């Protein structure tokens, strides 16, 4: 393998959208560093797995170190790890708040800071974060203040970082999904969740991977929040 072969770091990579992203980047020829709490070792020598809690700064350090030690570079970081807790606002607990902000905000902050520092050295790179269309279009039957607080912050940070690093060759974007058919949604919920989208059905995990890959190849796009939500953010 060439030392110039591109490398993607993907968080929340053990299942669902994260596992689909690992597959998509490997299909594109990237080497991958995959991290999640329960990620398993891979038989693919071009996939390095790093188990750990992404909210912990030490995990972020181990992931970035693994990318550099094994592959010598970092070209893309996909901040996919996230927690969603749907509760009425007044019933959220301190533990809920700590868990959601830990993964969604701290998990973004520590690893993105380290990844961009490495991207600056090579004057190129791409950061993509997975957020949610609930930030733009709240749904009365889906209480989601902590999702909006944290993922909305990522949308804002995406634009801020895109401008800060626009002249360094580093692009920063986000994908804002609707409800995606993944292991976190049992089949018996699919009909109700499908009805939340103007198109009448849930998205597929590959829809999100394809959106991320579009942004990967869109060299003139930065600071973009790409909605992949079946029309949710446009209205009902």
Shape verdict: globular
- Averaged pLDDT, please? 95
- CATH T-level topology: Rossmann fold
Give the count of structural domains: 1
Largest sheet: 7 strands, parallel
Number of helices: 6
Give the SSE map.
Layout: E1 7-11, H1 16-27, E2 31-36, E3 47-51, H2 57-71, E4 76-79, H3 94-122, E5 125-130, H4 145-164, E6 170-177, E7 180-181, H5 190-194, E8 203-204, H6 205-217, E9 225-228
Parallel strand pairs: 1-2, 1-4, 2-3, 4-5, 5-6, 6-9, 7-8
Summarize the structure.
The protein is an alpha/beta fold. Helix content is 40%, strand content 18%.
Structure description:
With 236 residues, the protein is an alpha/beta fold. The chain has one domain: NAD(P)-binding Rossmann-like Domain (Rossmann fold, 3-Layer(aba) Sandwich), CATH 3.40.50.720. Helix content is 40%, strand content 18%. The protein is built from six helices and nine strands, in the order βαββαβαβαββαβαβ. The protein has helices spanning 16-27, 57-71, 94-122, 145-164, 190-194, 205-217; strands spanning 7-11, 31-36, 47-51, 76-79, 125-130, 170-177, 180-181, 203-204, 225-228. The strands form two sheets. A seven-stranded parallel β-sheet has the order 3-2-1-4-5-6-9, with helices on both faces. A two-stranded parallel ribbon has the order 7-8. β7, α5 and β8 (203-204) form a beta-alpha-beta unit. α1 (16-27) crosses α6 (205-217) and α2 runs parallel beside α3 (94-122).
């Amino acid at each position: 393998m060439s030392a110039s072969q591109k490398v993607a770091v993907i968080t929340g990579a053990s299942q669902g959208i994260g596992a689909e992203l690992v597959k998509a980047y490997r299909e594109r020829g990237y080497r991958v560093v995959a991290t999640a709490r329960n990620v398993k070792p891979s038989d693919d020598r071009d996939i390095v797995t790093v188990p750990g809690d992404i909210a912990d700064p030490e995990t972020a350090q181990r992931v970035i170190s693994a990318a550099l030690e094994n592959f010598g570079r970092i070209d893309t970081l996909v901040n996919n790890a996230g927690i969603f807790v749907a509760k009425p606002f007044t019933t959220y607990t301190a533990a809920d708040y700590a868990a959601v902000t830990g993964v969604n905000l701290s998990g973004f902050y520590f690893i993105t800071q380290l990844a961009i520092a490495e991207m600056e050295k090579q004057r190129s790179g791409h950061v993509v974060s997975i957020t949610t269309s609930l930030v733009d279009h709240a749904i009365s039957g889906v209480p989601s203040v902590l999702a909006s607080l944290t993922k909305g912050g990522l949308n804002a940070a995406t634009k801020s970082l895109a401008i800060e690093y626009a002249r360094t060759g580093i692009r920063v974007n986000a994908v804002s999904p609707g409800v995606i058919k993944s292991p976190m949604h049992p089949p018996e919920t699919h009909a109700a969740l499908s009805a939340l989208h103007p198109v009448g059905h849930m998205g597929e995990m590959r829809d999100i991977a394809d959106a991320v890959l579009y942004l990967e190849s869109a060299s003139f796009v930065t600071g973009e929040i790409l909605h992949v939500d079946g029309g949710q953010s446009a209205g009902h």
